[in-house]
Amino acid sequence: MTDTPDTVTQLNANPLPLARHLGIRFVAATADEVVAELEVTEALCTAGHILHGGTAMALADTVGAVATFLNLPEGTGGTTTIESKTNFLAACPAGQVVRAIATPVHRGRRTQMWQTRITRADGKLVAVTSQTQMVL
């Protein structure tokens, strides 16, 4: 699948319920890379007005799931996360926008593994998530 404005438009027009709730906005979507952004609002923060780890994990899980969906083998019925691990490397204060970029590690018939890197606007790496998706 190539990156088309239609793919991104469809993802943003009909977002997953949690993506809509969090305010995730897709920027690009191909079989090899999915990119989304999220404004870090106070509602998505923890103490000290910094991005909550659960918010970062939800962002990464959403981007990885969409990437898997774009790579589903013909005749399969969907995907679900079966494993996820996140390393947090830097804080991101409220008011900034984070960018999540998911790239493939493994794309098999029964499972796919994606790495998602979340960065701040200044390029600093906030978190790295490795997740495995089961193909249904």
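Next protein, fold it too.
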Amino acid sequence: MRWNLAYRTLFHDRGKLIAGLVRVILSAMVLDRINESATLRAIGLSERELLSILAFQSALVASIGIAIGVVITVTLQTPLSTPRATIEIPLMLSIGCGVLIFAICLFAAGLPSLRVRRIDPYTALQS
């Protein structure tokens, strides 16, 4: 029972760390390409189309990250389990974590996009 609690605590803290890293990576992806986004806006791309591009990119990153996490979890679950302390992750918990991570990624991509929306395309093209 103690191992199960330690396991949950360990992976809960790692989950927070991973969510923070995902947010930083997605923010960097969006902010690094402000000039490209401004150029697309200058040639007539609507805000909605730009947001859909950013959402697609973050969904792709989230899907790849979730797939890697599932593979690592399934791979390590059996070797790390012992008869006295089995590691059992309920299916609904795994699905819920995947949905939560996906939502965090979409939210993380949405925040820097607000900054991209405020930039005047002409000003961004001058720099």
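About the second fold: The mean pLDDT is 75.
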